[in-house]
Write a structure and sequence with these properties.
mainly beta; Trefoil (Acidic Fibroblast Growth Factor, subunit A); 6-stranded antiparallel β-sheet; 46 strands; globular; actin filament binding
Length: about 475
C-alpha cells in the first residue's frame, strides 16, 4: 500500500533527496511524498507498520526525537503503531519510545508521548493512479455506474466494462469520484453532472488497501438492498463500509484485418467471426515483465492457450506455458507468437490457429481498448493535462485531464480534450488543445497498465524534465512510458 501523508497545514510528509532528510514541505503528491506502508502486525483498528521512502529507506526516529530516513538499528526504531480515527486521519506512535509523529508545519518531530491535536494528525491519500476500480470484498463485486438511471450499483463480478472505472479527484482533504461518463457520485442516490459540495467525500484508508467514502455528516457510502445500490448509510457494518482501490484493469479486443473480432464460442473455441465487441470478445491483458510475454484472460477466468493441434482454445490456466504469447507492436497493431513458435492467424472459416512460420497480413491483429473511453496518463513527472500557466500541454500536473479516445481505423486513435477540441501538434513537438482536425495516434501497451504513444510525426510522446509534453522520443525510454 502506497500513500501520501498530509499534515494539519495541508503539506505532505516528504523524504528529501539529500541526507535522507524528512520534512513537511511537499505541496503535491510526487515521488518524494510517496511512502510504502508495510504492515507487520494487526491489532484490531490498530496496526504495527513501517514506512519506506522513495529511496527504499525506512522512516525512523532517533533517540533525540529527530526523524529521518535510513537503516534502523533496531526494528522498533522504524515501527509505528497506526491508529485510525473516525474522520479518516491517522496517528503514528513510535513503538520503541511511545512518542507521536507530528509536524510543526515545516519540520517533522517525534518528541511527545501525549498526542497534540492537530499536530499529530496525518490525513492519508492513496498514492495510486487516479483511474481505479472499486472492489467490495464483502459482496465480491465491483461498483458499476449506470448512466441510464444515474446510479451506481455494486453488482459486477468481473470489471470488463468501462462503467466499472472511476477517477478519483482530490480537492484539499475531500475526494470527488468521477464516472466514465464524467458524472459524479453524490450524497443523493443520483449521479451529479458537476462536482459540488454534494459530491465531496472523505476518503478513509486502512492498511491492506482498504478505503471507505463518507460524507462530512458521518454517513458512509455502502451497497444496500438486493441490487446493492450504492447509497449513504448511517451506521454500516465494518465489512460493508470497506472497498479495495484497484487499478482499472486493461481489457482489450483483438480484430483481424478483415475487421472481425476474436471471440469465444461454444465455451472454449476461438473464432474471428463477429462484427461487434461482445463480452465474449474482450480479454484481460496481462503482461509478464520477466518473460516479456502476454496472457489473455476471458471473462470466465480461462486463458487463451495454444494446444497440440495448433488451434487456440480458451481453456488455459495461468501457470501453463501454452498461455504465454510473445508480442510485437507496430503502429498500434500486433503479431502474436505462440508457445510452439508459430504465429497466430485465422483460417478462412475464422478459426484462430498458430500455424504460420512467418507473420504476414493474415497474422496482424488490431488491439482496441474495450473498457477505456478515455486515457488518464501519468508519467515520470506527473499527470498529462492542460495548465492555466501554459499554452502547451504539461506532463507534471497533480490533477489529470481525461483524454477522450476516438477509435478510428485499425490501430489508430484520435485524441480529444474533454470539451476543448482535438489535440494539435506544433512544429516544436509540443501539443495544444482546441484543434479543429483530428490527428492519428497509435497506442502500444508495453506492460500492465503501461503504454507508449506514437504521435503523428512518427515520434513517441515523452515527458520532459521541464514539465513539457513533447513528441520527440525516437525510442521507448522511461520518459516515454505512461501509466494509464
Amino acid at each position: 500500500m502506497r500513500v501520501g501523508l498530509i499534515d494539519w497545514a495541508g503539506s505532505y510528509l516528504s523524504n528529501e533527496c539529500f541526507r535522507d532528510g524528512v520534512t513537511a514541505l511537499g505541496k503535491t503528491l510526487g515521488r518524494k511524498q510517496t511512502w510504502e506502508l508495510r504492515v507487520s502486525q494487526k491489532r484490531g483498528k490498530q496496526a504495527v507498520v513501517e514506512l519506506l521512502g522513495h529511496q527504499g529507506h525506512h522512516l525512523l526516529v532517533d533517540p533525540d526525537g529527530g526523524v529521518r530516513c535510513g537503516h534502523p538499528a533496531t526494528p522498533g526504531q522504524s515501527q509505528f503503531l497506526l491508529q485510525l480515527h473516525g474522520d479518516g486521519a491517522w496517528t503514528l506512535q513510535q513503538l520503541d519510545g511511545g512518542k507521536f509523529l507530528e509536524s510543526d508545519g515545516e519540520n517533522v518531530l517525534c518528541v511527545s508521548r501525549q498526542p497534540r491535536a492537530p499536530r499529530h494528525l496525518w490525513l492519508p491519500q492513496p498514492a495510486i493512479h487516479a483511474h481505479v476500480a472499486l472492489y467490495h470484498p464483502a459482496s465480491r463485486c465491483y461498483a458499476r455506474a449506470d448512466p441510464h438511471v444515474d446510479q451506481v450499483w455494486v453488482d459486477q463480478p468481473v470489471p470488463y466494462g468501462q462503467e466499472c472505472g472511476f477517477v478519483l479527484r482530490f480537492r484539499g482533504s475531500l475526494c470527488h469520484v468521477e464516472t466514465a461518463a464524467h458524472t459524479y457520485v453524490s450524497r443523493a442516490e443520483k449521479l451529479a453532472p458537476q462536482p459540488s459540495a454534494d459530491t465531496a467525500f472523505r476518503l478513509s484508508l486502512a492498511p491492506g488497501g482498504l478505503a471507505s467514502l463518507s460524507h462530512p455528516d458521518g454517513r458512509v457510502l455502502c451497497p444496500q438492498g438486493g441490487r446493492r445500490l450504492l447509497t449513504l448509510v448511517d451506521q454500516p457494518s465494518e465489512e460493508d463500509r470497506w472497498f479495495v482501490l484497484k487499478r482499472c484493469p486493461t481489457w482489450v479486443s483483438l480484430r483481424t484485418q478483415a475487421r472481425r473480432y476474436v471471440s469465444i464460442i461454444c465455451d472454449t473455441e476461438v473464432y474471428a467471426g463477429t462484427d461487434e465487441v461482445t463480452p465474449k470478445s474482450v480479454f484481460l491483458y496481462e503482461y509478464d515483465r520477466d518473460t516479456k510475454t502476454v496472457q489473455f484472460k476471458a471473462i470466465n477466468n480461462s486463458y487463451l492457450a495454444q494446444r497440440k493441434s495448433k488451434s487456440i482454445v480458451a481453456n488455459g490456466l495461468r501457470m501453463e506455458p501454452e498461455t504465454n504469447f510473445r508480442i510485437t507492436w507496430h503502429h498500434g497493431q500486433v503479431v502474436l507468437q505462440a508457445f510452439n513458435g508459430r504465429y497466430l492467424g485465422t483460417l478462412p472459416v475464422g478459426l484462430v490457429v498458430a500455424s504460420a512460420a512467418q507473420p504476414g497480413p493474415n497474422e496482424v491483429f488490431g488491439v482496441r481498448l474495450s473498457n477505456r473511453p478515455f486515457l488518464v496518463l501519468h508519467g515520470r513527472y506527473g499527470y498529462v493535462g492542460s495548465s492555466a500557466c501554459h499554452e502547451a500541454l504539461q506532463c507534471n500536473l497533480a490533477d489529470p485531464d481525461c483524454i477522450e479516445l476516438l477509435p478510428c481505423v485499425q490501430g489508430i486513435y484520435h485524441f480529444q480534450a474533454h470539451g476543448r477540441g482535438f489535440w494539435s501538434l506544433s512544429s516544436d513537438g509540443t501539443f495544444r488543445t482546441g484543434g479543429k482536425f483530428a490527428l492519428n495516434f497509435y497506442l502500444e501497451i508495453r506492460g500492465n497498465n503501461v503504454l507508449a504513444v506514437l504521435a503523428p510525426n512518427g515520434y513517441y510522446l515523452r515527458g520532459d524534465r521541464s514539465g513539457m509534453l513533447r513528441a520527440d522520443g525516437e525510442e521507448v525510454t522511461s520518459e516515454c512510458l505512461w501509466e494509464f
